[in-house]
Amino acid sequence: MSGNKMRLALVQMHVDAGNPDANFERLRLKLEEAVNGDAKPDLIMLPEMWNTGYALERIEDIADPEGRRAKELLSSFARTHGVQLIGGSIAERREDGVYNTMYVFNEEGVLTSQYSKIHLFRLMDEEKYLRAGEEPGRLEAGGTPAGMMICYDIRFPELARKLALGGARALFVPAQWPNPRLHHWRTLLTARAIENQMFVIACNRCGTSGESEFFGHSLVIDPWGEIIAEAGEEETIVRAEIDLSLVDAVRTKIPVFEDRRPSLY
Ligand SMILES: O=C(O)CCC(=O)C(=O)O
Asked: For the CN hydrolase domain, which residue ranges apply (predicted)?
């Protein structure tokens, strides 16, 4: 991190549905790859439900109790490498059910925030197997206020706007967004960036699981809506440098937040 600049690494990876051991092993290798590039990233981000995938019928049995196993790996990696880690999301088992939860660790390996997906995706039966979170997700990325949303959440612009009004200047979105909705994925993420004049950083999985195909296309979009990095469909580490001062420049040029008329809508 230098000034307002921040180097990002997004881990776009395959997830083996129903096989946490294989996914932990794959993630370990990917994390090593992420820190071993030419320039060490300040922040690493992972995709949605990377520990179990969408093996929902077995999710009670394979979800991570209180996220202990994931927390141990993520915290120790963040501390060892002095990197902030936005741990995608995992299937996390709590006393009252299984949640789809994001953890954020700082460079010392301390868990600084967490968020459980609040909109469950009925097209994939999430509401039958998972419990919904009840609060929006906020974090600090390199000292800057930011928001978190998971996959289907991006269809709810009210949530992104609420986070932006609360000070968020970047939005982090882990996903398992499948074919054939690439057009929705790119358009919705770009719209959230343009309308809220903030960075949108979205890490999708790739590969196939049963009938579902995941197209990857992880994205980093700036507050003007320009795509500054986009992956293809294969496993990869997407690297990008963002300059957070661009948020102020765009908000000054078109003062959307000053021009809102919330009393009328
Ligand atoms: O909204 C979509 O089209 C995809 C959402 C999704 O796959 C999810 O939330 O897991």
From this structure: 6-244
